[in-house]
Amino acid sequence: MEISTKSKNKYPIGFYVCTSAYAIERMAFYSAKWLIGIFIAAEVMNGGLGLTPADGAKMTANLVAFTYLTPILGGFIADRWINPRLCIILGALIMAAGYILGYQASVTLSPELLGGMILLVSIGTGLYKGNIAGISGRLFKDKNQLDSAFSIQYSIANMGSFLGTFIVSFIAYSIGFGKTFLVCALLLILSALWFYLGGKFTFGDVGKKPFEANENKTYTKKLSKKYRAPLTINDKKKIGAIILFSIFSIVFWIVWYLTYMPVLYHWGPDFDYANKANWVIGNFRVPSAWFDSLNSLCCIILGPLLAALWSKNAKSPKGDMSIFKKTSIGMMLLGFAFILMCTAEIVRGDGQASLMWIIAVGVLISLGEMVFAPLGKSFISKFSPARLLGLMMGVWPLARFIAGKTYGYLFEILSGYSFAPAYAIVAIIVIICGLIIWKLDKKMNLL
After folding, report:
1. Would you list the DSSP string of 295-308?
2. N or C: lower Cβ tally within 10 Å for the chain?
3. Can you name the residues that pair with 354 across neighbouring β-strands?
4. Res 375: pLDDT
5. How does pLDDT run across 149-170, given as a tens digit for each residue?
6. pLDDT for 393-431, tens place per residue?
7. Are 430 and 364 in contact (CB under 8 A)?
């Protein structure tokens, strides 16, 4: 990692426009993620599809997975053909159409329409997510601000996630699952309008042309042969480091997403076969959606704190901790969260686990997430060749696609075994992976 020099520059206003638009989109996405999990497994008489928890896990896994695969294509489009601003607006509107399809799925009780919703939301996310991060990074003249800036963006985006999941359970149980999908659609329309209007006055020329034109002042649709010259050896090393880091993150995200499945289907209060934890405080039953809210709240709090820590470390003589060591620490924290889950399962015996165990697990996985997750975007913004910025912003989420496609099936496999031993094995594997990454830090930094 580079050592930052002290900067008195304020963050660009356009950065906050991008970040607030992204927060609105996250409000809709995480609401829909919880909605799908409940909607699929809820009984038909309660407005659900009446399918199994394994079906719910795999469907939510598909939503998560494909929204991390399509940004590669969306980034490639924004690199070469369509300006990133238009990509983002189109992406938001396509996602809105997808959530409307989710409403139709609840009317007809059709899993196929729900699959169509996931397809449209995935396509829209591909055009939206990586490109809004790409514009955010290009607004900064001082690249040393990016570590702290993306931590702040991650924190503000989680305000949207927090508000969405905090409120969505009340809306869903009041007006039904289907109409709540319509609320998600309205949020995406709002995100598109805010991004368009705010960007007109704050982005300058950033995002008006494809990303590969960013450092080519004489850009035309047919770029010069000189600009399309082969990548240098240094460029290839940087791309290799980005890909290598993304590969290491796959294990982390598989386990991170897996955490939500036992909370919803093993301990959760929404199904009779679960409810192995006491979710009641006084006369109030805590909604399971608030586990997502807890994660978002922790990210909101930790974002500025970690941004300040990374900034302080970068200004020190030794410089900041490498991104690989941060990944290692985040992974080990996640492993300890699984140890807590196993301990809670053993302690509860035949009774119910205290809600405090679930809160502790939520705090620990959030801390692990915030140690390294926002810094992947910063890492790519700093070191990606300019002409491949959008594509590289899509490679980072590819790891989460693989994780997303995996964790639903892993949950199905683990469900066939005793809870504590099965999840303890997962914890041990994750902690060992973290230790290996820490040991290999110097070799990986040579890239």
Report:
1. HHHHHHHHHHHHHH
2. C
3. 278
4. 62
5. 877 887 788 888 888 888 988 8
6. 667 677 778 888 888 889 999 988 999 999 999 999 999
7. no
pLDDT by residue (tens digit) across 130-155? 888 888 888 887 767 776 787 788 77
pLDDT score at 425: 95
**CB burial class (10 A; 0-12, 13-18, 19+) of residue 243?**
middle
What residues does 353 pair with on adjacent strands?
277
Sign of CA dihedral 429, 59, 405, 322: negative
For residues 156 and 353, what is the distance between their CA atoms, to the nearest angstrom? 32
CA atoms within 13 A on the CB side of 297: 12
User: Which amino acid, 341?
Assistant: M
Q: Is the Cβ–Cβ distance between 153 and 374 less than 8 Å?
A: yes
Name residues whose C-beta falls within 8 Å of residue 376's C-beta, 6 or more positions apart in sequence.
Answer: 245, 246, 249, 323, 396
Distance, in Å, from the CA atom of 122 to the CA atom of 101, rounded to the nearest integer, reads: 13
Residue 109 contacts residue 44 (beta carbons within 8 Å): yes
Q: In terms of Cα–Cα distance, which of 377, 393, 426 is closest to 148? A: 377
Kindly give the parts of the chain with pLDDT less than 50: 1-7, 215, 217-219, 221, 223-227
Give me the residues paired with residue 284 across strands: 281
The answer to whether 232 and 383 have CB atoms below 8 angstroms apart is no
Beta bridge partners of 280: 285
Cα gap 301→308, rounded to integer Å = 12
